[in-house]
Amino acid sequence: MLETTAWWVWPIILFVFTFFLGILAVMAGVGGGVLFVPLVSGFFPFHLDYVRGAGLFVALTGALAAGPGLLRRGLANLRLTMPLALIASTCSIAGALVGLALPTSITQTLLGVTILFISFIMITSKRVEFPKVEEGDRISQVLGIYGIYYEESMDREIEWKVHRTLPSMILFAFIGLIAGMFGLGAGWANVPVLNLMMGAPLKIAAGTSKFLLSITDTSAAWVYLNNGSVIPLITIPSCLGIMLGSYVGVRVLAKASPKMVRSIVIVVLIFAGLRSLLKGLGIWV
Amino acid sequence: MDRRRVRIPEEQVVYANILYYGGLAGIIFTAITFAIYVSGTLPAYVNPSELPELWVHETHEYLEETGIPTGWSWIGLVTYGDILNLVALAFLGAITIVCYITIIPVLLRKRDFIYVVFAIAEVIILLLAASGILQAGH
Fold it and tell me: pTM of the predicted model, to two decimals?
């Protein structure tokens, strides 16, 4: 029945679906890609290849839209981003190539496992608004990674520096690989590493993470585009829907209970992860 | 309210400006090309009515069925509405490369050689990804 549905219905459904996804994502503090890929691959008729290609562009357009404001306000830091982005974007190319080469059932199963792992991280990880970093490590000092930003809620400037740069770089290699392989934005992983591991204040971690996606996802998106795994009729309505949804989401954010929305998103992720896992294993096709 | 000490480095401002105008242009371009495509203003290389039967298959089957070329070969088919959309998406992918190229002179002027190396290396990586040399398939 799905194959006989008129073609023009799909971009409309995708646009409406991603619009609401965008609202939900902003309110839950996650990127759109992490919700988009498991949900669309699990419940829409599109092959996983095109969903991953679209997922990368969804995350990329969101990051392109948010990036300038974050950079200008000092909430994303270019010096912190550049070394990490170089590692993550290189590995995301490798991830994209591996993801496109693996049999679909294996990728779908691994996606399910990854989404369930992300849900677990979201449930268990604590975020620290202002982590204590006594002294920046040697690498961050040599690279000049530190800064000051204006914390509006406290009406004062916050100085920050980072540590554990080398182990974090190794983690970013892994994050890049996962992002490219499954077409996920990687905010779910970027923020805990920047915040808990490196010790960046939560706002800097969240802002830098969002901006980082514009670089990490660009390299993987190119691989999917050049491999023919991007179908405009799937990709473009999704990008536009999620952007508009995020725009609206920011405005309704103040009226919603973030904790409640975050719980809903975690439940949705667990459901989407299980669906992906069972689909990959051929149990629920 | 004292914001005097919050200084945004010049390269970060330059990057933000290019990203802003590039992103805005890219999103408008994408929306316009999509409207051209779905309205049928330009003919489509793959008839949209055939897509629901094609997008259930993996990439190599889709490419075999449609004859859409991979790499940059599709650039010769931009007069088709669906291929024109790929140009718009490629534009979105090119913005970061332009941003990095633009900050290299700023970093050079500041004699920030480590970050010059990072910027050049990132441009190379992104150009490699964009080149179409790296191909994969099931």
Answer: 0.92
Rounded to an integer, the average pLDDT of A93-111 is 94
> CB–CB of A58/A33 below 8 Å?
yes
Distance CA A132, CA A229 (A): 44
- Checking A222-225 for CB contacts under 8 A at 24+ apart, the result is A222/B93, A222/B126, A222/B129, A222/B130, A223/A93, A223/A96, A223/A97, A223/A100, A223/A180, A223/B129, A223/B134, A223/B136, A224/A49, A224/A52, A224/A53, A224/A56, A224/A96, A224/A100, A224/A183, A225/A53, A225/B86, A225/B89, A225/B90, A225/B93
Matching residue, tokens 């242009």? B25
Helix (H) or strand (E) segment spanning residue B30: helix B10-39
Which of A78, A93, A148 has its CB closest to that of B129? A93
The Cα of A153 is separated from the nearest Cα of chain B by a number of Å equal to: 11
Q: Which residues of A touch B92 (CB under 8 A)?
A: 57, 60-61, 64, 221
ipTM of the complex: 0.94
Using the beta-carbon criterion (under 8 Å), do A86 and B118 form an inter-chain contact?
A: yes
Query: Which amino acid, A257?
Result: S
The tens digit of pLDDT for each residue in B14-55 reads 999 999 999 999 999 999 999 999 999 999 999 999 999 999
Number of Cβ pairs closer than 8 Å across A and B? 207
